[in-house]
Amino acid sequence: MIADQVSLAYLFGACGIILTTYYLVQQLTIRHKASKEASRTPGKSSHRTDPNAPPPKPTPIYLTPEQVKNRDDRPWRPFRWPYHQTMSIFKLDINHWLDMDKYYYEYIKEKERVYHSYGPDNINWLPGSEDACLELMEMVKEHMLLRYPLLFTSEDNGIHVKNEITGETLDFSEPLKLDPLIYVSKMAKEDFYIVKKDDEGVHRLVAAAVPFPGGSFGIKFKLGKTLDVIHGHVPYYTTKLRPSMERWFGRMQPADLIERASWYISWDHKLLLNNVYALQAGDKVPSDVEPTDFNVRVERQTLRRLPKSKAIIFTNHPIFYSIEEMKDEPLVPSLIRKIIYEAPEGIIHYKNFESFRDHILPYLDSLVGRQVENGLIKRETPIRTLPSYPFAYFVNDSNEEKGWTNPSHPVDYRSKLQDEIKKGISMEEETFQRVSATAA
């Protein structure tokens, strides 16, 4: 993909949160107009405006490290049709702000590798962001201790915290031994972006811990930039997003927590740089890649405000679902096939669908035919958003304690992830040099 496009994708997670912000503002505007009606229906309103409402506290869940090793998190299926007309924004249950699953250990170790390899290109902060970084660190620590009391333990009221999964004890005594965002990256598997309003009332990216952008490098080229600069080439920004974004950011209160999911497709599980975004303009997927190797990378995203510093926190958590494991889920292959060919051209180009869609079309056709033969759908079944959107149909068949393992096609790609990371280092370095040269 061309370097400008890759670079722009970086701020809010590759191919996801930039467009998310547009739709977030759009959906919040709609919901704000109906706030009185929504307030009478518990769970329907995704945005509250009471500045005195405290942030919610999580409920403890007593997962052990051994249980986490086999735990799948909520099964996202964020496929919708019509693709460009709707974008569900959901009120975030605080218990799911920082989720836990069997890939946690691999994600934390990959964060360490990325930081030691690329440092400030993926984790960095500006002077003036210290209060927000410290507040985020304390909030993440408190959340982990409260939500996962058997996974994060402390005998001295949080001065020293042991991560029972990695075995590392984090020393929070003052003066801090590490920078706040490093502590955050050692506790949570999510990526974090910190946005603050400057003295002129303009929101800027002031700090970021983003080891897993999926499609780019270069936090140092984004820090300090305004949202106008970062979103300069985003579709609909000038005409629809810009007038309302700052207004909504100004209204958001600490009790307002929101989540959603975006997605794109690649043929690997790497977190720092997926194969689809290592391609240069006009490149296609290698012909020897098996169609069954293709995965949907879901970017689970949240948005909230810190109560003291008033900084806005974006999080992004990538997780992979192979198309193969979703083959028996009614309409999923049909939706993917329709979206990669019939979505608006800007989105098709933005997510690089042209690079692989012809390669996997016969595979998708076979899966759709298989669903017809097995009676899962009829050939004339309309293609529409899933009834269980944004989750898989089996989401209600499990719960937080059990987790949400796919009942038909359980998947564990941990060993494959590690192998792909090792083999992909040279590709990372080459892409990093190319993108950095362009961004500079």
Automatic annotation (TrEMBL):
Residues 35-67 are annotated as: Disordered. Pfam families: HODM_asu-like (PF11927). Keywords: Membrane, Transmembrane, Transmembrane helix. The chain crosses the membrane at residues 6-25. This is DEKNAAC101307. It comes from Brettanomyces naardenensis.
